[in-house]
Amino acid sequence: MHAAEEVRALVSVHDVMPRTLPQVERILALLRSEGVNAVTLLVVPGCDWSTEEIAILRGFEAHGYELAGHGWRHQVERYGGLRHRLHAGFISRNVAEHLALDADGILALISRCHRWFLEQGLKAPALYVPPAWAMGRIERSALAGLPFLQYELFSGILSGQTGRLHPIPMLGYEADRAWRTPVIRLWNRVNRRRCRAIGWIRIGIHPHDLDLRLAGDLREDLKRFRLHADYAAVDEPGGQRYRPLKSSRSPSAADSTISKTRSNPR
Ligand SMILES: [Zn+2]
């Protein structure tokens, strides 16, 4: 078992889009004040990015933030307004644009996402995170042919090249409906316990989380998990145990096996 101080935390900020930049900046200010020194920003390319907004992304890179691909057009923008946002993260599939596509469509979307970063003069991103962590109906082996090196799924981090899935518990705070607060709180409690055995945790922050009901929990977790790591560190040799994905045909079945790793000591 690891003490909380020994658990390596992967901190990401989701849904970086032109209209969420003010909220993202506010979160980054909090992360800086808490001494979080490895932060990955999940950028949604298919929005209407102006030249000035692209320059902000370049500034993020210059300050050492890692940019990652996050779908193409995040469906959450259809709902508009905080109260109407249906991005459930853990529960709803309403933003999961992969689920509406077949394998070819998913491959095209991921490729297009990667290409966009290069076209904007940004660094080639290493990590891809499908909206709502839902990869959809695609053979995992097909990912090896894509330019991204890692994929973040609901259950953990998948290496595109080796097909290894590193199960890593996840904490979230997107309690944008009252009923979600106890559900996410319970989820987080279970995962704070699981991460002690695994030695890794993911802290996934959404743009409006500081205005939502679990903002206090988020602040506490940032104080609790003070050892930060880049996503790339997950794939470093010897750094993390892994299990190979057996069935690429049934991603949901593969994901559901995460419970088996719960008490697995490192
Ligand atoms: Zn998202």
Span of the ends, CA to CA:
8 Å
User: What is the helical fraction, as a range of percent?
Assistant: 25-40%
**Number of discrete domains:** 1
User: Ligands in the structure?
Assistant: zinc ion
Whole-angstrom Rg: 17 Å
CATH second-level architecture? Alpha-Beta Barrel
* CATH superfamily annotation: Glycoside hydrolase/deacetylase
In CATH, the topology is named TIM Barrel
Name of the CATH class: Alpha Beta
Number of DSSP E strands: 11
Number of helices: 6
What's the overall average pLDDT, rounded? Answer: 84
Structure commentary:
With 266 residues, this protein is of the alpha/beta class. The chain has six helices and eleven strands. It has helices at residues 21-33, 51-62, 103-119, 180-198, 215-224, 251-256, and strands at 8-16, 39-43, 66-69, 127-128, 150-152, 156-159, 164-167, 170-171, 200-205, 227-228, 243-244. The strands form two sheets. Strands 1, 2, 3, 8, 9 and 10 form a six-stranded parallel β-sheet that branches. A five-stranded mixed β-sheet has the order 4-5-6-7-11, with no helix packed on it. Helix 4 links the parallel strand 8 and strand 9. It starts with 7 loop residues before the first strand and ends in a 10-residue tail after the last helix. The structure holds zinc ion. Zinc ion binds next to strand 1.
